[in-house]
Amino acid sequence: MNWVIDHIPELLSAAVDHLQLALLPVVVGLVLSLPLGWVANRWTVARAILVPVSGLLYTIPSLALFVMMPLLLGTKILDPINVQAALTIYTVALLVRSIADALAAVPDSVVQAASAMGYRTVGRFFAVELPLAIPVLVAGVRVAAVSNISLVAVGQIIGVGGLGYFLLHGAQSSPPNYQEIIAGIALIVLLALVVDGLLALAGRALTPWTRQQRGPVGRGRSVVSR
Amino acid sequence: MPTQGVRVIEFQSVTKRYADGTVAVDSLDLTIDAGRITVLVGPSGCGKTTSLRMINRMVEATSGTILVNGEDIRAQRPATLRRGIGYVIQNAGLFPHRTVIDNIATVPVLLGTKKAAARRRAEELLDTVGLPRELGKRYPAQLSGGQQQRVGVARALAADPPVLLMDEPFSAVDPVVRDDLQEELLRLQSELGKTIVFVTHDIDEAIKLGDKVAVLRVGGELAQYDTPATLLAKPVDDFVASFVGRDRGYRALGFLSAHGAEVVPLSTIPLGSPVDEARAALTGGWGVVVDENQAPLGWVSTSSLSTVEGELRSADLVAGGSLYVADSPKSGSLRTALDAALSSPSGVGIAVDSGGAVTGGVTAESVLKALDEARRSGEVPS
Q1: Which ranges does the record mark as transmembrane (chain A) (predicted)?
Q2: pLDDT (tens digit per residue) in A68-95
């Protein structure tokens, strides 16, 4: 434990970096995925292209994608953009399908009713379809966030890896510094658990209607009658 | 807003042909009366829902013109048009993520009403459709099917549109609830006087609710457009006759008031009377047993009393038939009077006043006599 106690400031600042590297791509990926998912849900042809292609993107090994990024983007090798861009691609790959499925699961009668009430396409999306997609969407975002938090460490291969630094550095020390490695792993796992938990809570807070008791409630019990 | 009095919908040779060549509606001409309930009815594939949805441009007509309040519906953007027309969808189509109040407030908020004001109005609408205000904070999934459907009606009424489109709104609820909802709609309509276009596949519902009924045949052709009474009495062809149903003669009696049927005095026997007194009070071998409010409990006859001793108890009674109200102005129809006579064990139907007390009896013969008189006086369409 001595090593850990001596390096708390470094560990904490690396953890903050790690979160930024992992979560900014989740936000950007979500913003990009919403229109793509909407398009995929709206036109069958678009879905037939977007869903398999995004699935394919997710199968690219992270190491290869990280290494290719400076070439594709023309950025410097140590630029954190490289890692964030790659993780954004993974996020989009995960969320496009999620969002398309979530939108498809909104009951047609509800969408029809919204149109008949006088919603235009965009208004209807934000007022009706998106809120109803939240439960499935949050599930997708949780997977993407946890996946990104673990993938950031791989970015250490190209010099930007948040807590991944301690894994590589500890392993390359002679003799290997197991305290350093374990501290890095433990913090990554902890971050993933905390972020996942917070997202789950946020999802619940955003969808109060899903927690209400199902089915009709007897008048006598909760309706005041005299 | 439309000027008073000209609220009317007009179909002018409207056709809907889908890309695959199917003709859903074929050159439909139809004028819908202002302030009335017009029912579009027909078998599936007759284009009734398509016709309804063309009014608010949920479906665009291929050719022809639809006028609402004398104005071509294509003159407005669809969303603008729809905000001015109430719409009640099958299964209510409520927004699951919004409370009942916010569901009802949807259209006023879209039209720019402040949220607080729209919610206050929504609370009043809960009263209008007969729901307790406490339900306002619930989510739709916490309501029964019938309650959801009432919320759907309240939502359609929220912006006080002159025209209300109802697409099979009561088809997904059980028969008892459906009956309630139908009665409620008629009560609402008597207060609000909206122009309502109502789609159903159920001819009984059409006849119960419609001021006028349009029967459509498969292929989207108008077969007959008449009042329910005329539809039952004079179907234009075999299709309409068979669609209207086999017992249409009997159901047509529902449009004639039982006012004309003779009500004869009936001997009533209070529950708990000595059996000897009861025997003495029978007319034609039968007597009606009543409670302390003169409400009928059942029948006794010479044969049913032959094995009874002492005082008359409820276990000694023969179950009665249906009742009909003979109290004007809310008098029952000849149909309920005839049913009362036919379902009674004595062959005499029990007439009650609006308070439920026995006022006399009616026989099938007297109902038929009343029908005969109605025919002669021209009350029956012929």
Answers
A1: 21-40, 46-73, 125-144, 151-169, 181-202
A2: 888 888 888 888 888 899 999 999 999 9
For an interface test with B, the pick among A103, A110, A117 (most B C-beta atoms closer than 10 Å) comes out as: A117
**Could you tell me if A218 lies within 8 Å of chain B, comparing CB atoms?**
no
This prediction has a pTM of: 0.76
ipTM value? 0.78
Would you say residue A223 has pLDDT above 50? no
CATH value at residue B225: 3.40.50.300
By C-alpha distance, the chain B residue nearest A209 is B97
| pLDDT in the model for residue B116 | 93
CA atoms of A164 and A150, how far apart (whole Å): 9
Task: Inspect the interface and report whether the beta carbons of A119 and B110 lie closer than 8 Å.
Answer: yes
- Closest-CA residue of B relative to A208 is B97
Residue B307 falls inside a structural domain: yes
Contacts of B142 in chain A (CB under 8 A): 212-217
For chain A, how many residues are written?
226
**Contacting A residues, span 86-125, partner chain B, CB-CB under 8 Å:** 107, 109-110, 112-120, 123
Domain span including residue B304: 259-376
CA distance B202 to B204: 5
